[in-house]
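Sequence only, no structure available. Ideas?
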Amino acid sequence: MSNKHVNVIVVGAGAGGGVVAKVLSEAGLSVVLLERGRWQNFHDITDDELVSQRTPRLTRAPGPENKPSRKAHEFDNGRNGVVVPNNVACVGSGTMTYGAMAWRYMPQDFRMKSIYGPLDGSTLDDWPISYEDLEHCYERAEWEVGVSGDDTTNPFAAKRNKPRPMPAFPYDREARMLIPGMKRLGWHPFPVPMLRNSIPYGGRPQCIHMRSCCGFACPINAKCGTQNTVIPAALATGLCELRTDAVVSEVMVDDQGRARGVKYYDINDRLQEQTADLVVLSAAASGTARILLNSKSKLFPNGAGNNNDWVGRNIQGHCYVGAYGLMDEQVYEEAGPRATVAFCDFNHGNPGLHGGGMLANDFILMPYAFSRQRPPGSARWGLAHKKDQREMYKHFIRVVGPVQEMPVFDARVMLDPKKKDYWGIPLVRNSGYKHLHDAEIGQFLSGKAEQLLKEIGAKDIHRSAPSPGSRRGAGGGQHQAGTCRMGNDPKSSVTNRYGQVHEIDNLFVADGSLNVTNGGFNPALSIMALGFWVGEYIAREWQGGGRFRA
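Reply:
I predicted one. Tokens follow.
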């Protein structure tokens, strides 16, 4: 079954795809935006902790509540199993339920190899673009989606040409406890930038400080995601059609090596074909790689754009590390979602380390999640467990942050050779291991977090970081990146600097798959910026002569 031909197909209505759909439809191109999930809101998802994206072991993240949403995973010991995806499947994708930290990567994050040199066992490299190239796209993301924040007290902040559109959120009680200690240690605290309305913005109200924010939808639409900003703008042009419950299986590539469209399964499990002048994949690092690997043709027997065997490799995520403790005075306050103060003193310039990461206070832990974070030795069952839960919960304090992981060629997304999903599409398998250096960075950062908690008088402090020398299995989680890295050399990358697949000039990628490295920050704003970067390039080329037309 086929549909009317369009200029562009965008696969995935998340941080990257939603932005691309807006840019291209506003530039006058006809767009079909395909999303495997559907429209969701707070009342669909609720704030039941057991249905939270943050606790995927208990239930699914928001999205299809059936077998088709499962994927395969190869565990460290080689045993295969089925795991529940923790990436959201809905319009807006992770921007519906994320914590909404809105970080720009630092200029150094784009030049890791130049700054630190090569690292044995890693494919560490520079990006083919610089922070300066991407700066205006960060600005567009901040203003068109909506970001609050203030870099006044952050001496490590990258140069910007325009302030954020909304003021920073005030510090919460936990932040006010931490800040004096940071300053005594000579560190530089500042407000965490957020994709949340600190004031009314974009026709939506300001945040009401719900404690169960991270992992959930916002009940009043004050959290800024693509589902309530750029996607409605794309639809308003009349040139963008959104199709939900659309599971894309492959890109159709002809014998001349051009993308002709995609095949997808609709809500009734019928196989559809949608043709287009060009295709943009924005299905996250695992999903985009899965589609490319499954898109086999005469010229690409190992998957579209994969003749050099780089699709699916170098998958990165973020290992979160830090320190936890208890304070004599009460830390907890009902107003959420917390995560209001950070410092970037240890993102770069750490002796003997390739990079580092930011550290911040974190979002409010809901009770079930807290039960797994309490100090070692606390009771795990029965009346003693309940007693510890009650006594510790409101006195718990923590400082955490993401490790900038080192890319590894054999850390990869593969197609399972035997197992298939509900529609017959090969399941995803993660294979390989993280780099050992990640544990070294994690140990360093968790040590700094511990130092801060000691400085402010916390007790029962324990650190959380990979053990020295540990080998963690490859995988990306909700910060997945790197499987279709951009680069200048087709032999060591999947796309060029504009997200254009080297071997297929009308096939693009616009999500975290492009990341050469993943920074020491939550990547959502950077993925939105890449959406603008890729979308602007396509629009310029199209308006300059339509070079992507069949």
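The radius of gyration is 22 Å.
Hope that gets you unstuck.
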